[in-house]
Amino acid sequence: MTTDTIGRTASASGGVTYQTVDDSYFEQRQLKRHAGLFTLWMMGVGAVVAGEYSGWNIGLSQGGFGGMLAATVIIGGMYVLLCSSIGEMSAALPHTGGAYSFSRTALGPWGGFTTGLAENIEFVLAPGANMFFMSSYLAAIFGTPAEFLPVWWVVGYAVMLGLSMRGLELSMRVVTWITVAAILVLVFFYVVAIPHVDFVKYALNIGVGADGAAVKLDDGGGSWLPFGFTGVMLALPFGVYMFLAVEQLPLTAEEAKNPTRDMPRALILSIVTLIALALGVLFFSAAIPNGSFAMGQSGEPLLDGFRTIFGDSWAKLLASVAVLGLAASFFAGSFASGRNIYSLSRAGYLPTALSVTNARTQTPNIALAAGSGFALAVLLVVWFLGGKDNVAFMGGFLVSMIVFAGMVSYILQSIAYLRLKALYPNIARPFVSPFGRAGAVIVIAVCVLTLAYQFFDPLYRWAAVAAAAWYLTGLAYFAFYRRHRLVLSPEEEFAVSGGERGRPVGETA
């Protein structure tokens, strides 16, 4: 048994030991509660809305319109189940650790860190990918050459960090209203696209050539599923990209005014909003001139949709508008990356200096800077390894790594949900998932299927190797060093006390 100077006692179970800390340790790592339901809802949508602007459309070339539609429905349904399970866990364990917190309580320190590390890969890279896609739009606006893209990445991260230094309350307010604007841009696109819709001619204009590759059918009228069931499966990862990262919302638990009430509601509102936006952008992008075939090849699908309707003369203005969605997800995702690093650092899984917050604004600026720096490093490595010569390769590689980490995280969180049901049947659950254990089992099945089919893509296999290397490095660091230097943070104290202690400051049972 080890005891720290503020009276917390914990067993060094699971092969870990805890450092002794005093009151000042947590005084230097405080967060401020300021987010209500609407802010949480918009943060959830904002974290993902870039997926409706870029990336998803590649699924059209993999499965045709019908295949991508089926993939969107399957994955959207899976996220409803996942968000319901996460909503139950986040209300019962309202810590900023999110997925790490759930798995730490249910699966022990190794399970907690493994889950937190999967989220770390996802949340560090997701805003990086959004910044990469956004830089393409910015290059179109300002006429900068392709080799200038890394400069846009540095500028974007500098702006984000500068905003965060003013305090996360202001940052969240900015993200909230950028997200509202991004949603309105999508709705505007749906409205102006209506007069141009010819579903059969444009949405069904993908056929299969003699070599098995997609070909354009000039008059449309093709099959809903030109690549059959395999096409649906291959489109699943791109369906994931339309919803990926909504699960980051529980990372704001210690900044929410009433997380036990608002977090589950915000999660459900967010995923329902995103499903409606995803179905709208899929239908209207595919059903207007140029259609599914062209959209499946596009690097800027929303911008190309606007060009179809308004012409090239409006391109720069439309690109400026399209940046809103990417910016919303970039900012929201970067803040999630910082919170993930903050929570793992506060508990000692990462160097504890990373979780020190600003004394005035109570913002985890060091964690934010660390996540940003690592994301920039990964972007530059992929850029110089081949991205500068093949922008499509770079985008696909980043998306594949993010989806890999996301699926692993979802599987572990669903297992944690099942274990929490069994191990802690009596802890307070202000919200209970209406889908229960069956919902978690379905999530696991869909995630395993998505991972399995991704290995048909050679690019994905290399991305999986890169993500696995990240994973193994992190696990080795924990095994040989950090597991003997943990700290009884709220997440850890909740876990080792069986839920009797460890609720965050300002939160009541």
UniProtKB/TrEMBL annotation:
What coarse category fits the chief subcellular location reported for this protein?
Answer: membrane
Domain of life, per lineage: Bacteria
Its subcellular locations are: Membrane
Per UniProt, the keywords (alphabetical) are: Membrane, Transmembrane, Transmembrane helix
Pfam families in alphabetical order? AA_permease (PF00324)
TM annotation in the entry? 35-56, 62-82, 149-168, 175-194, 224-246, 267-288, 317-336, 366-385, 391-418, 438-456, 462-480
Q: Outline the extent of the Amino acid permease/ SLC12A domain.
A: 46-484
**How is this protein situated with respect to the membrane?**
Multi-pass membrane protein
Its recorded name reads Amino acid permease
Q: Which organism is it from?
A: Methylopila musalis
- Taxonomic classification: Bacteria, Pseudomonadati, Pseudomonadota, Alphaproteobacteria, Hyphomicrobiales
